[in-house]
Design a protein that fits this description.
By secondary structure, the chain is α+β, with helices and mostly antiparallel strands. The chain has 3 domains: 8-184; 209-257, SH3 type barrels (Roll), CATH 2.30.30.60; 265-350, 2-Layer Sandwich (Alpha-Beta Plaits), CATH 3.30.70.100. The chain contains 12 helices and 8 strands. The strands form 2 sheets. Strands 4-3-2-1-5 form a 5-stranded antiparallel sheet. A hairpin with a 3-residue loop joins strand 2 (222-228) and strand 3 (232-237). The longest helix has 37 residues, at 94-130.
């Protein structure tokens, strides 16, 4: 019968294994104490910095990882002790047990790293939205980070799961092929949705269309932007109706943004005066009326003077134009209406005539008519 009594080698190997485990446990406890002391000093802060949040997140996973690592190191050293040849079962299955321990070690390492990476990514994205986003007023981050925060952890966990399967000698090639075929089928099925999603990504990251901007789509509706989403963009028309436009269609259209680069917009009024009018006087009167309109109207920008010019000899009038600047697109309609009324009133007082369309017909006079 084989003896299984402890020998000096077995006892020394057992002591070494326990010592290694105790060292890992002490190291884990020391790290836990240090992290807790750092976290305790920051409890009074209104907004904790990113480093403190990261320490709070990695505290428990790191301690758990060190304890498991200590257990695996304990078993690995113990199984390599020469005295274990007295124990038939352990001696015969020594290599197999070591392989199992190595696989468990790889699984623990990959699972811990995967979970920790996903948690840190979620934490960093949340911190960015709370701190940087509020200070810089960048609306892009508030829209891009939430979907990234949902998608990236899934990708990280999927990659970790595949690595674990590969470490267990399970072929992942069929899974990858199945994912590829399944992804292709899903992509074909949701092609319109994906098209709108990527178009929405383009619109959001470009940053040219923002909430409350007044836009006009060539050959389409116009109005104020209510929301730029991932699938569609919503605008409020001038008739107070909500218009929902798919992002794929919006990305392929020519869009005029009346709020960019500044909300100010030029207002151009065209008219004409009769050929008998004094053009110098006409110019003086129109500029005077335009300047007075700028002073009186709350929709005008006072810093920019009006522009005036004659454009062409028309059929019945000498045409002219005058340009003033409104504060925004909505105010430009009221400002233009006021300017037209003021010019018409002043022309009536000054006796300046705006002719109706007139055509003068000249024909030959016959001899019979003269007699």
């Amino acid at each position: 019968m084989t003896s299984i009594l402890p020998t000096d080698n077995l006892i020394s190997g057992l002591i070494s294994s326990i010592a290694i485990f105790v060292l890992f446990a002490i190291f884990a406890i020391a790290i836990n104490i240090v992290i807790k002391l750092i976290l305790r000093k920051s409890t009074g802060l209104k907004q904790q910095p990113l480093s403190i949040r990261l320490l709070s997140t990695i505290n428990r996973p790191v301690i758990t990882f060190l304890i498991i690592l200590g257990v695996l190191a304990f078993l690995s050293i113990l199984l390599r002790t020469e005295a274990l040849d007295k124990v038939n079962f352990l001696y015969q299955n020594n290599e197999t047990i070591l392989q199992v321990i190595n696989k468990i070690w790889i699984i623990v390492l990959v699972a811990g790293a995967t979970s920790l990476t996903a948690q840190m990514l979620t934490l960093i994205s949340s911190w960015y939205i709370e701190s940087i986003q509020d200070k810089t007023n960048v609306g892009i981050a508030a829209r891009l980070i939430p979907p990234i925060r949902r998608i990236f952890p899934l990708l990280i966990y999927s990659a970790g799961f595949l690595i674990i399967l590969d470490s267990l000698d399970i072929s992942i090639s069929p899974l990858l092929a199945g994912f590829g075929l399944g992804g292709l089928a899903v992509a074909l099925a949701v092609q319109p949705t994906l098209s709108n999603f990527f178009a929405g990504t383009y619109l959001i990251t470009e940053g040219e269309l923002k909430k409350e901007d007044f836009i006009e789509i060539e050959g389409g509706p116009s109005g104020f932007i209510v929301d730029v989403g991932w699938r569609s963009t919503k605008i409020q028309s001038r008739f107070n109706n909500l218009v929902i436009i798919p992002n794929s269609q919006l990305a392929q259209s020519i869009i005029t943004n009346y709020s960019s680069p500044t909300p100010a917009i030029n207002v151009r009024v065209t008219s004409g005066v009769s050929y008998e009018s004094d053009l110098e006087k006409v110019e003086e009167i129109v500029l005077e009326v335009a300047n007075q309109t700028i002073k009186d109207s709350p929709h005008a920008i006072n810093e920019n003077p009006p522009f005036f010019g004659f454009s062409e000899f028309g059929d019945s009038n000498i045409d002219f134009w005058v340009v003033i600047q409104a504060s925004d697109r909505l105010g430009s309609f009221a400002l233009k209406s006021t300017l037209i009324k003021n010019i018409h009133t002043r022309f009536s007082k000054e006796g300046i005539e705006i002719n109706y369309p007139v055509r003068k017909l000249i024909g030959e006079t016959s001899i019979s008519d003269t007699t």
